[in-house]
Amino acid sequence: MATNIEVEHNNEDTLDVMQLISDIKHSQLINSYNTATRTVDFLKSLISEQEWTTAQELMDLVKKRMKIISTSLPYEVVSLNILRHSLKLIREEYRSILKKKKGEDLSPPQFVTPDYREVLDYSETLPDLKARLLDQLTEYKVEMETSCENIANQASEHIHTNETVLTVGRSHTVERFLISAAKKTTFEVIVAESSNILEGHTMANNLAEADIGTTLIPDTNVFALMPRVNKVIIGTDTVMANGGLRAQAGLYVVALAAQHYSVPFMALAHMYKFTPVYVGPHDKTTFDLLGSPADVLPYSSGPMLNKVKVFNPVFDYIPPELVTLIITQQGGNAPSYVYRILTELYVQEDYDA
Amino acid sequence: MYNKNEIIHKGNIVQAVVVADEFEDKFIPITNEVPMSLLPLLNKPLLDYTLEFLYLGGVEETFLFCCSQVDMIKEYIRKSIEASAAWSLNMKIHILVSESCRSFGDCLRDLDAKGLLRGDFILLEPGVVSNINLRPILKKHKEVVKKDKGAVITIVYQKAGVGQIGRSAEDDIVVAVDHNNRVLYHKKTRLLEDKRIKLPVEIFLLSDEVSMLHNLKDAHIAVCSSSVLPIFSDNFDFQTRDDFIKGLLMNEEIMGSTIYLHLIRGSQYGGAVTNWQNYQAVSWELKDRWAYPLVPSLKENNLLKDNVIGNGTIVPHDANISRCVIGNNVVLGKNINLEDSFIMSNCKLEDNVTINLSVIGNSCTIRKGSKIIENTVLGNGVNIDQNTILKNQLIQATKPDFCEKEDILGQYAFRLKPDEDEDEILQKLPRLHNMKESIETSDDGFSDSDDENLSYTQSPVLDDTKLFFTEVIDSLTRGFEDDLQCDNLILEINSSRYAYNISVKEVNFNVIKAILHMYLRQPTGQRYFSQLLSYFSPILKNYIRNESAMQDCLQAIEDVAITNEELKENWIVFILNWFYNENYLSEESISNWGRNLDQSAKFSVQVKPFLKWLEEADEEE
Amino acid sequence: MDKKKQSKEEKVGADGLTKKERRALKVQARQTDDNKAEQKNIRQHSVPKNGEKSEINQNMAEKGSENVTENGVIVEEVKVPLDKPESGLSMKEKRKLEWEKKLASVKNENNIETKCDQQLSKSEQKAKRREIQEAQRLAKKNTVTKNTEELNSKISPENKKIDSAATKSFPAKHTCSKRFDGSILSPLQMPFRDYKPVELYDSVCLPNIHPAFIELGVQYSSKTILGSNARCISLLCALSRLVKDLRTPPEQEFSRYLELVLQKSTSYLQKCRPMSVSMTNALKLFKSQLTQIDSNIPDEDIKKKLLDFIDTFIHDEILTAGKAISLKVLEKISNGDIILIYGCSSLIKRILIEAFESKKQFKVIVVDNRPLTEGVEMLRRLTKAGIDCTCVSINGLRYVMASVTKIVLGAHSLLTNGYVMSRAGTSLIALAAKAFNRPVLVCCETYKFSERVQADSLVYNEIGDPDILLKDDTLNNPSPMKSRSKKRRRKFLNLLYDVTPAFLITAVVTELAILPCTSVPVVLRVKPIEI
Prior knowledge:
The complex is a heterotrimer.
Chain A (H helix, E strand, L loop, with lengths): L1 E3 L10 H11 L6 H18 L5 H18 L5 H25 L26 H25 L1 H4 L5 E5 L3 H11 L5 E5 L4 H13 L3 E5 L4 H4 L5 E5 L2 E2 L5 E4 L2 H10 L4 E4 L40 E2 L4 E4 L6 E4 L2 E3 L4 H8 L8
Parallel strand pairs in A: 2-3, 2-5, 3-4, 5-8, 8-11
Antiparallel strand pairs in A: 6-7, 7-10, 11-12
Helix pairs in contact in A: 1-2, 2-4, 2-5, 3-4, 4-5, 5-7
Chain B lengths: L14 E5 L20 E2 L2 E2 H12 L3 E6 L3 H13 L3 H5 L1 E6 L6 H11 L6 E4 L3 E3 L3 H14 L3 E9 L13 E6 L4 E6 L13 H5 L3 E4 L2 E9 L3 H7 L6 H10 L1 H4 L2 E7 L5 E3 L3 H12 L15 E2 L2 E3 L10 E3 L2 E2 L4 E2 L4 E3 L2 E2 L4 E2 L4 E3 L2 E2 L4 E2 L4 E3 L3 E2 L4 E2 L4 E3 L2 E3 L11 E3 L2 E3 L6 H7 L18 H6 L10 H20 L3 H15 L3 H18 L4 H10 L1 H7 L3 H17 L5 H13 L5 H9 L6 H19 L1
Helix pairs in contact in B: 4-7, 13-14, 13-15, 14-17, 15-18, 19-21, 20-21
Chain C lengths: L1 H9 L8 H12 L3 H12 L9 H5 L4 H12 L15 H18 L4 H23 L1 H11 L2 H15 L35 H4 L7 H11 L6 H18 L8 H19 L4 H16 L6 H34 L4 E6 L3 H12 L4 E7 L5 H12 L2 E6 L3 H5 L4 E5 L2 E2 L5 E4 L2 H11 L3 E4 L46 E3 L4 E4 L6 E3 L4 E2 L4 H7 L5
Parallel strand pairs in C: 1-2, 1-4, 2-3, 4-7, 7-10
Antiparallel strand pairs in C: 5-6, 6-9, 10-11
Helix pairs in contact in C: 3-7, 6-7, 7-8, 11-12, 11-13, 12-14, 12-15, 14-15, 15-16, 16-17
InterPro entries (chain B): ARM-type_fold, eIF-2B_epsilon_N, eIF2B_epsilon, LbH_EIF2B3/5, Nucleotide-diphossugar_trans, W2_domain, W2_eIF2B_epsilon
Keywords (chain B): Cytoplasm
Subcellular location (chain B): Cytoplasm, Cytosol
């Protein structure tokens, strides 16, 4: 006899975040852009469907979900950053509505950051907060969609004719960046295979299809070819608060080689990749996510596998002194400026959320 | 919102069937109380990994077929859905129960009767842990079916080297496929007699390119077409998936169904917990992240060197633990030694306990000084008294039906002796790997070494050798009587040798033995004997050419002498002397042989004078 | 032999020559013609390709003209290595010479006898044809490509390709060894690499080369023998076989004859895979030994001396040196060390296994590389010996580097400016080590020290098989780079070596001492060139 499961959900309110976590964890979302849009949608549904009356309640809801995400997915940053950013948006909207209500100046002077240490308890019920927030989020989503394009448009400023650009592995942002540059100038690209070999090959393939002269090299050749390279352009997983990068494994040695030959090392990053987490010089815990050992030693290697430990780290940390430029949709910045960008994105007290 | 009351049948929904029970009692006595799918693997139930894998792989509807302890499974599923386990969010689970099923085949027949599956589905045997993306395999299966209408099943295999712990000897297979990956021949090597494969000629006639594969590991996953279930229903003797495959291959013309193979590549991994050996292998592979992104949720405090420690378990400083998995809330005493073992939750181990290569079930208590070693399995709730030593036993907490007095070890400890022959059941439980031993394939394991190790007096005489021996005696007798040329006799002997596939050593041995036996039939004195020997001298010359052949000859003499005790001493000495004088045997070889003789045997006493004489002769020279 | 020549005549067009030409050649052959030999010398002198120096060239400077000739031969697409005409040899004697060589090799390989006979006459004819071709080179270039043997026919279409790609400033015509002329063209703008491993069936019909060398050539090009020590030892073994089997033709001096044969064999090997520094140094020493031997002593004695030399060389320079290095490194390994190694170096393996056997407690981290995956082989050997090993790829360097205590690397050769030439990827390891402040020890026997200087990895390097990058059995899906579209945009580059700057290396361990990298020229000066 067949039985169907009938269960009442006790925690229906966290069901949505579990769904999000499941999607992220099981790589149903292929790249960071997908994760970002998914999170914005999640937020929108949170705002519109959940019950809340005051801004404080809403922020609490968001913070609760942030906590769940950070415990289940310790290496996930994009969702957290977007949720953090939304906290800032909530506060801003609240302020502006409040000020409008009280008849004060609508917006503070541009060069002064609003002082969030002002004690506001955010507990007033403001009816149009919901609508305005939803509008903001839609705007934010549009901004995200155009972010890739904006970065790509800056390409011609950075790539000169007949230059040789080195990139490692696959990044959609870098791909679009280079393809956009190729429309205006001719240059060569060297693609290093990287730890995820298939991704490296796909990148090289896509660039070749876009009529860019591409050479595929194994990562071991990076040092040998570095003197011939004019620029290194890579995508990154996260930008840390100190200007360092958390990027795909293998990029650290590329950055070292670039420094040795004084080749500019440029990272392309969207705004939602900026994380207010500070990494000390010897901090290892954020980066010890290990992937399948099959990428290093195939499973068919035989009885040797009974005795050999295999490590295949997913991330590498690149210290800020190795990074020349971080390019966002707003333009290029030095790593030392990242902390300022962070203040524009998030509110200080949410840094640890 | 999520409505669990409806079963939505869509045409193209991805369905999977998990048969949640193994029917061969591989995990008793633990599975007497806990269903096999809820066995903890790195402190999480096995079923959890299976379901997460299905969800990851893209399955939308799963049918879980359970036959025993169904309530526990239902309870578990319910709890997981409450806790919003990842797989529960987008995948529907249906539990199907049948208490009367006794085998995998029975379950599928039941499933066929219920008619719940439409189209292609994924079929999992019990205990699968994997990270394979199933949708591309499904797609490929559909394409194969388009080309070959008779294709019914695609089995998924993984490449694995011999000797790797993940590749279990029980499941070792040899497969022959053609260039389209259609399976032409499939055999489990443990079912082969003396490691020989008989390939049917038809497989070479059917296709122009055949690959033989022995580097495969069974992932226990298959993609089935809708005709698989009816085939099971039609053939009541199909009990396992292997029967199915064997049946299909044997009756290809009749049934017209074909089997295809899919090899997973790259970082895809598939493993199944089918016995304790695989349980160990899958545990370690899971910990080593071979099934990434399906990873055990282990935090830093769960890992201690190469062990996995459950939550709430405190490991004392002087504990000597290596390669173990310890469950939650286990209490460990002082000075314990744990190696290559699995200890499940809520156990209590007192001081000075040693556990090696064993499995301890839930909530067991083991008192001071006990040693649980060599593949012992303790069921749930067993209490072991102080200073008990248990080797290679199955112990359960409740009294089994047929229990003799000596099998009662305590109030909650009863030795389980299965109905069948004890050897068989213990053979059925493949040993946990002793990870300290190096599991190496011998690089130089060629057949020559096997021959050299044959001990003539101890190994059972093969029928072939006996036949060969009789033939040789016949040829020699005939030859002597008819006064045939020795060259022809040599030819005869050689052809017999090839016919029976006798090794060189055996040939030498048997020929000499035959000649000696010929004399023994008609012991008419030494003159006759020397006549015989000199007649056969060309043969002797041909076969006794080198040092090892001399040893064979001496061995033959020894053998004949020992088996025919009534032979007089001087006969032996005469033979040795004759061989020595005719230079068939060198002093060295005789001396070496003499030294290696069993000094206490009568034979050695008989031979001693000759050896002594030989030594003296040597010294004189 | 005459019959065969007649059959040649019937095969019109097989060589591309007309009957008349062939007959003319035969007429020439019958004359004792010193002038022809001299002419040939002169013409070949005038053929040098600029900037085209193989490794042999740089190390065998004393044989300048012949090397140029060598180049000339190769550029001319007639790939069969020819005898370098010594000015003292007549045509007749040369023919005799080749005949004797034939006899010698025939003793070993009966089945290639008849073919070789044909080839012999063919190569003779080629020698003559060469002269004509030299004179009419510009006009007849394309027809010559058709005239070449099986081996050459494979290579000539590539040469046409190279011609058409119009990279005149980049004259790389070697099939396997490539050189980057960075000053003129970026390596990335070069046409698709013409890398073709030498196949066995091409080599079987090579005349005048000892089968040991043919076998060696194929093993080198298919990377069956990998690693500078292995290559050197296998070369020396083949060389000793050659010396043993060599029968001097009458009126020929053993030493001269051996030199000739050796020249051909090594140029063949060079084609299969560019020679390593270890090989060239060993050969250089061998040749100098050869010149030193008094040629008045009987052949057997010369042979014995040469064989002794080879044995001593292998024993002293490679095996004993390895032992000495191993002892020195053993002192530096302390209990509890975690040693990082890269790829598969026979010397490093020896060091680790001997250290393990002397009861030192350490762990090893093996860094694997793609596409050669040499690390797997190293892992197998170390785990078999019982050493506790971990494996990472280059990408995992930062993850493990913090726990590493020292790094021990092997080298292909050490350059005079102190830079280390080693497997591609070594420099990345040295860079990471520097960033984490870990000592890097490079172990290298002194016979691998080279007089070359190099400032970066591109001026001299070796290209490996580009298709190996496309091998996808370890990938989940097939590689998209196999696609045929926009082929000219898809390039692959697989460099085998790179050069690590001296300041990244802490010390070099040699059998003489543990030295700083910059002491290489001192060692080269101190080490006697003549043994």
